[in-house]
Amino acid sequence: MTETVERTKNGAILYDKAIINQISAEHFMAGGWPHAEILTGPLRSGGRGNTMFVGNVPRQFVLRHYMRGGLIGKLIRDSYMFSDEERTRSFMEWRLLDKLASNNMNVPRPAAACYRRRGTFYTADIITVRIPDVVSLSEYIALDDRDEAFWQSLGKAIWEFHEAGVYHADMNAYNIQVDKDGDVWMLDFDKGALRPPGSWQQETLSRLHRSLKKVHRLDPKLYFSAASWEQLLEGYFKASR
User: Fold this and answer.
1) How far apart are CA 89 and CA 34, in angstroms?
2) Which residue among the candidates 16, 133, 145, 170 is catalytic per the annotation?
3) pLDDT tens sequence for the chain (241 residues)
4) Considering only Cβ atoms within 10 Å of each terminal Cβ, which end of the chain, N or C, has fewer?
5) How far apart are CA 201 and CA 237, in angstroms?
C-alpha cells in the first residue's frame, strides 16, 4: 500500500508514494512546478480555468482546483463546508480514482490530493497523472465524422462504467475523452461514487445527450446527429444484453 497522508498546518495531503515520493503544499500551486500550463480548449472544453498541466514530459500531471459551478459558484467560488477529512471532495475523488484505476478502468491515476481548512470551510485540489494523446469528445467529433462503430464503442464504454456501478456526476462531452487509438476515458470524478443499479444510469445518459446537443448548437458543423445518438444507445444496450 503506497497511500500516504501527511498533515499540514491547516489540512492534509494524501498521495501515492509510487507516483510522487515527495510532495508539499507548494505542488498544489502553479509556482510549485518548473512548468505549468493552463488547460484551454475549443467549444468551452477548457472548463472553468481551474485546471492546468504541471511538471515535465514524460511524467506530466494535471492539477485541478475545486471550483463551484452554477448559481452558487457566482457567490461562493471555491469553498466547501468542512465536516470530516474523509468527506472532503479531493480525498473522496482520489480514493474513487485509485479504486477504479486499480481495476484497470480508463480513468486518470490519482497522484495527490489536498485540502486546506479556513475555519468551518475548506478549499481543495487534486493532482492526477496526465493521460497521453487524448482529446475531449467534443473535439474528437469536431475533427471528423465518426462512423457507427465509434458511436457504438462509446456506448459500450459507458455501459462498462455503469455495469461496474460507477456514477459520474457530470458526464458530458468534455469529461469523456478519446485517445489516439479511439479508446474512451472518463475524467473529473468530483462527486462521483460507486452505486447499485438505478435511475442514475439513465440520468447520466440524458446529461451526456444534452451536452452533445449543446456543443452542436455551439458549432453546427460538428459531427453529431440524432443517428449518432441512436448508434451510441445501440452500443450501450447491446453490451448490456
Assistant:
1) 27
2) 170
3) 578 999 999 999 999 999 998 899 999 998 899 888 887 765 455 555 589 999 887 679 999 999 987 666 667 889 999 999 999 999 999 999 999 999 999 999 999 999 999 999 999 999 999 999 999 999 999 999 999 999 999 999 999 999 999 999 999 999 999 999 999 999 999 999 999 999 999 999 999 999 999 999 999 989 999 999 999 999 999 999 9
4) C
5) 12
The one-letter code for the residue type at 8 is T
* Residue 170 designated active-site: yes
The Cα–Cα gap between 216 and 133 comes to 23
- Cell 494524501 belongs to 14
Q: Which distant-in-sequence residues (6+ apart) come within 8 Å of 63 by Cβ?
A: 27, 28, 30, 33, 36, 51, 52, 53, 54, 125, 126, 127
Domains of the chain, by residue range, sit at: 3-129, 134-240
Q: Which of 52, 6, 60 is nearest to 31 (CA)?
A: 52
How many degrees, rounded to 5, is the angle at CA 59 between CA 58 and CA 63?
130
The topology (CATH level 3) of 134-240 is: Transferase(Phosphotransferase); domain 1 (1.10.510)
- Cell output for 129: 497523472
Measured CA to CA in angstroms, residue 58 lies from 1, 28, 132, 140, 203 at distances of 24, 19, 9, 23, 37
